[in-house]
Amino acid sequence: MDHLTLLAYAEDELNGVITQLDETEMDLVTNCPPWTVRRLASHTLGCSWRVLERREGFPQSSRRCRASSAPVSNRRDVGS
């Protein structure tokens, strides 16, 4: 499986989990405090795409993988 296909599959799986959660669950702190489910999902997706961009030689995003990245504002945004 190529990297893009694998990343798309992982994104679909994460999106499937996230869409099952309500707003209260999205704002729960994970086992990686102080990260909430919403922020961790946003961070994971954003960093995964940026790593793939670097690996495949695409122009890199100016955003860095860090906790202050903008969180997903709504669970339907994850994977969109």
Low-confidence stretches: 66-71, 73-80
**Number of β-strand runs:** 0
Characterize the biggest β-sheet: none
* Number of self-contained structural domains: 1
Number of helices: 3
The shape, in one word, is: elongated
Structural class: mainly alpha
Termini, distance in Å?
22 Å
Provide the residue-averaged pLDDT.
Answer: 75
Helix content, binned percent = 40-55%
Estimated share of beta-strand residues: under 5%
What string, H for helix and E for strand, traces the elements in order?
HHH
Rg, Cα atoms, Å: 13 Å
Notes on the structure:
The protein is mainly alpha-helical. It has one domain (3-77). It has three helices and no strands. The chain has helices at 3-18, 23-26, 37-56. Helix 1 (3-18) packs antiparallel against helix 3 (37-56). The protein is elongated, with a radius of gyration of 13 Å. The model is unreliable at 66-71 and 73-80 (pLDDT under 50).
Topology:
Layout (H helix, E strand, L loop, with lengths): L2 H16 L4 H4 L10 H20 L24
Helix pairs in contact: 1-3
